[in-house]
From TrEMBL, chain A:
First-level EC class: transferase
Cofactor names: Mg(2+); thiamine diphosphate
Keywords of this entry: Amino-acid biosynthesis, Branched-chain amino acid biosynthesis, Magnesium, Metal-binding, Thiamine pyrophosphate, Transferase
One GO cellular component term noted in the UniProt record for this chain: acetolactate synthase complex
Single annotated GO MF: thiamine pyrophosphate binding
Domain Thiamine pyrophosphate enzyme TPP-binding, first and last residues per copy: 398-546
Entry's family note: Belongs to the TPP enzyme family.
Record protein name field: Acetolactate synthase
Membrane spanning stretches: none
Pathway: Amino-acid biosynthesis; L-isoleucine biosynthesis; L-isoleucine from 2-oxobutanoate: step 1/4; Amino-acid biosynthesis; L-valine biosynthesis; L-valine from pyruvate: step 1/4
Species in which this protein is naturally found: Azospirillum cavernae
GO biological process: isoleucine biosynthetic process; L-valine biosynthetic process
Automatic annotation (TrEMBL), chain B:
Function: Catalyzes the conversion of 2 pyruvate molecules into acetolactate in the first common step of the biosynthetic pathway of the branched-amino acids such as leucine, isoleucine, and valine.
Subunit structure of this chain's protein: Dimer of large and small chains.
Endoplasmic reticulum keyword on record: no
Main EC class the enzyme belongs to: transferase
The organism of origin for this protein: Azospirillum cavernae
E.C. number: 2.2.1.6
Domain of life: Bacteria
Protein's recorded name: Acetolactate synthase small subunit
Classification lineage: Bacteria, Pseudomonadati, Pseudomonadota, Alphaproteobacteria, Rhodospirillales
Annotated Gene Ontology cellular component terms: cytosol
Keyword Transferase assigned: yes
PROSITE patterns: ACT
């Protein structure tokens, strides 16, 4: 092929197209004007103009998580790049593949405290999987392609490319993706077969097994979720998942125990505590999941499948570590299980299920149903019923509503659930919903929100209006930063310091100011009607203000630093003893 | 195995010598709270722009394993070798040591330099600059002795290391 000379800006656009990108989320400024000019002169790549760069990144996350593709972002130098930082770290914590292009002051001004200069690669180094500063236009195409490779390979993550304005103007040589091979980065995808063998033997000998699965299964793609489902069905074992792994195994299945961890179900946490063999597939032993480490599944042998060797033995020492992609490992396990005609110990398994059913009978998600006030759980149960059988995606903000959404909405498929788990970023849900809606224009996309979180990125309603993205913001309005209030109640003597949501806007009027639909429910009887009306809006965003019980707390709850068997089931439970100091310091 | 025992390890890392790579390694250590006792870096293959970082760190076995896993997953890192774990290795440090004094102290400094096989790089009537190559302990000892004989300053490279035998990185 003859060498092609393009400007740096054109190289960026061409590289994006050659990487199969159809949508990019961004916000213009002086240092990216050449790229915006190149965007203007083409029609294949769609640019979604957000209202704040943080939202561009979250929208790209929603796009990426709901499609399995790499999300793309374009921001200007200085404040554009620093506004994107929270989003980048959010994507790093949750292993979401992104490529973010940022503008930079021209090369000769770097280091001069120039207008809108920031040390973007310095600032984002710990917030990205990798980043680049491109000083020579002839490296630009290669770096663009490398960035996509790094973002999606191994443990996915965000990659930033900082491009000085003179490099965007300069002419350079374009190389296609096929000619770029990364020099050093080769994550291990296929597992060591000897390890898989050991794992199969241990699994077959288990008496009280449990699958503990996580976001890694979602990262590995829908095929991995299918293989997981097959393997779990074949063994007949119980399965629980982290917040990030919801949907990889169908929640409607009888083997599903619900989410585990701090706000996980009683049965999931007790199964973890009492298991003899734990099969961790793509989860990272997060502190919100393990609770007190010295009492984490104390009598168990542990298998851990993870593509990132640094996840292994980081928090919890395991017996059989398997480095590899969840899909590849599950396939190897299933094949070997069948070839060796393995069968679980049926008698033991029967006893184990009997014990689990006993825990399940506690009905830990039960709440005080009342006609006098809308319980947030009730609103979500009604939402669940209304969404049944419909093509839908759920995002959330951060707080109690997020945990209730995880507990009460059923996920039967992967890539349908988008939430900020690792960083816990309030303001994530609305832009993520917009990203998911852009990717799936016909589907129903609901952001389950809290009134405080909504205020963090509510400017994005403007974006949704502009692109006719009919996202639904379902605000469980308890007039409190409920999750903060709950911790203050349980751990700080009910001193509700600064957690009351004062001076809230009228959310219905706010919606109307943007030309959207605003709805409100203040009584139990109105909930179904409001949900029905909300789902009927298909041409513009809809903001729903559900006035829920301001005092409701989210249970079950394992207080920080406690073990799985010290779970609180409801307001009548008080912590077995004062939360220890090492628990108090946990977040 | 004693989980809480602190071990000292020498780790060699081959990296692409691209801008920011050292900041990445150092940021990893400071951001995650690992110790760096010494760190040296220089390009070792000019044609391919590959640098070799030698670092000495300490921590529990679990932390040492984490450090190696975290280093390995940095994108520009080619290979990570734990020289402490992977059989016998040799380690050296180079130091420049300035000592000022006259009379008996000056003579004693020169005598000790001879015992340690340090060479004199600069001499005036009242001072010496010694060059010493040795293990960290030898350099520590030498600097410690010079402290009593008019030590002005010391400059040390930190450890460079390599496995013994024919096979390489
Ligand atoms: C208010 C709040 C409350 C929370 N409460 C809970 C709770 O009660 N329960 C809970 O579970 N979480 C809770 N979280 C979320 C928690 O903080 C963590 O984000 C979450 O537990 C981590 O999920 P994970 O272990 O699945 O890991 P992820 O962050 O999803 O990481 C995925 C792991 O899989 C690996 N991986 C990635 N791709 C692959 C692949 N292709 N193949 C193999 N491995 C791969 C990665 O290396 C990583 O180790 C809460 C968060 C908030 C904000
Ligand atoms: C950006 C950011 N700031 C602060 C926090 C700490 N925080 C976690 S939950 C929460 C309250 C959320 O309130 P709301 O959105 O109303 O949700 P609720 O808990 O009431 O359902 C706060 C302040 C956070 N997670 N993110
Ligand atoms: Mg609230």
């Amino acid at each position: 092929m003859p060498e092609q000379k393009l400007t740096g800006a054109q190289i960026i656009i061409k590289a994006l197209k050659d990487q199969g990108v159809d949508t990019i989320f961004g916000y213009p400024g002086g240092a990216v004007l050449p790229i915006y000019d190149a965007l203007f002169q083409q029609n294949d790549l769609r640019h979604i103009l957000v209202r704040h760069e943080q939202a561009a990144v979250h929208a790209a996350e929603g796009y990426a998580r709901s499609t399995g593709k790499v999300g793309c972002v374009l921001v200007t130098s200085g404040p554009g790049a620093t506004n994107a930082v929270t989003g980048l770290l959010d994507a790093l914590c949750d292993s979401i593949p992104l490529v973010c292009v940022s503008g930079q002051v021209p090369t000769h001004l770097i280091g001069n405290d120039a207008f809108q200069e920031a040390d973007t690669t310095g600032i984002t180094r710990p917030c990205t999987k990798h980043n680049y500063l491109v000083k020579d236009v002839n490296n630009l195409a290669r770096i663009m392609h490398e960035a996509f490779y790094v973002a999606r390979s191994g443990r996915p993550g965000p990659v930033l490319i900082d491009v000085p304005k003179d490099v965007q103007f300069a002419d350079g040589i374009y190389v296609p993706p096929t000619e770029v091979k990364h020099k050093t980065y080769r994550p291990q995808v296929k597992p060591e077969i000897a390890r898989v063998e050991e794992a199969i033997e241990l699994i077959a000998s288990a008496k009280r097994p449990v699958f503990y699965t996580g976001g890694g299964v979602i990262n590995a793609g829908p095929m991995a979720a299918k293989l997981l489902t097959q393997f779990v069905k074949t063994t007949g074992f119980p399965i629980t998942s982290t917040l990030m792994g919801l949907g990889a195994f169908p929640a409607s299945d009888a083997q599903w125990l619900g989410m585990l961890g701090m706000h996980g179900t009683y049965e999931a946490n007790l199964a973890m505590y009492n298991c003899d063999v734990m099969i961790n597939i793509g989860a990272r032993f997060d502190d919100r999941v393990t609770g007190k480490l010295s009492e984490f599944a104390p009598g168990s042998k542990k298998i851990h499948v993870d593509i990132d060797p640094s996840s292994i033995n980081k928090n919890v020492v395991v017996d059989i570590p398997i480095v590899g992609d969840c899909g590849a490992v599950l396939e190897a396990m299933l094949t070997m299980w069948k070839a060796r005609q393995k069968r679980a110990d049926q008698a033991a398994l029967k006893d184990w299920w009997k014990q689990i059913e006993g825990w399940r009978a506690r009905n830990c998600l039960n709440y005080n149903r009342t006609e006098s006030v809308i319980k947030p759980q009730y609103a979500l149960e009604r939402l669940r019923e209304a969404l049944r059988g419909k093509d839908h995606y759920i995002t959330t903000e951060v707080g109690q509503h997020q945990m209730w959404a995880a507990q009460f909405l059923p996920f039967d498929q992967p890539n349908r659930w988008m939430t900020s788990g690792g960083l816990g970023t309030m303001g994530y849900g609305l832009p993520a919903a917009i990203g998911a809606q852009i990717a799936h224009p016909e589907a129903i996309v609901v952001d389950v929100s809290g009134e405080a979180s909504f205020l963090m990125n509510m400017q994005e309603i403007g974006t949704a209006v502009q692109y006719r993205a009919p996202v639904k913001v379902f605000i469980l309005n308890n007039q409190y930063m409920g999750m903060v209030r709950q911790w203050q109640e349980l751990l700080h003597g009910s001193r509700f310091s600064q957690s009351y949501s004062e001076a809230l806007p009228d959310f219905v009027k706010l919606a109307e100011a943007w030309g959207c639909v605003g709805l409100r429910a203040t009584t139990v009887a109105e909930v179904d009607e409001v949900i029905e009306k909300m789902l009927a809006v298909t041409d513009r965003p809809c903001i729903v203000d559900i006035a829920v019980d301001p005092k409701e707390n989210c249970f079950p709850m394992i207080p920080g630093g406690k073990a799985h068997n010290e779970i609180l089931l409801g307001p009548e439970d008080t912590p077995s003893s004062a939360t220890p100091e090492d628990g108090m310091v946990l977040v | 195995m004693d989980e809480s025992k602190i071990e000292k390890h020498t780790i060699a890392v081959l990296v692409d010598n691209e801008p920011g790579v050292l900041a990445r390694v150092i940021g990893l250590f400071s951001g995650r709270g690992y110790n760096i006792e010494s760190l040296t870096v220089a390009e070792v293959n000019n044609a391919d722009h590959v640098s070799r970082i030698t670092l000495v760190t300490s921590g529990t076995r679990m932390i040492i394993e984490q450090i190696k896993a975290q280093l390995s997953r940095l994108v520009p890192v080619h290979r990570v070798h734990d020289l402490t774990d992977e059989g016998p290795s040799v380690e050296r440090e180079l130091a420049l040591v300035k000592v000022a004094g006259t009379g008996e102290k000056r003579i004693e400094a020169l005598r000790l330099a001879d015992i340690f096989k340090a060479t004199v790089l600069d001499a005036t009537l009242t001072s010496f600059v010694f060059e010493l190559t040795g293990t960290t302990e030898q350099v520590d000892d030498f600097v410690g002795l010079m402290a009593q004989l008019g030590l002005v300053e010391a400059s040390r490279t930190g450890v460079v290391a390599m496995s013994k035998g024919a096979s390489g990185f």
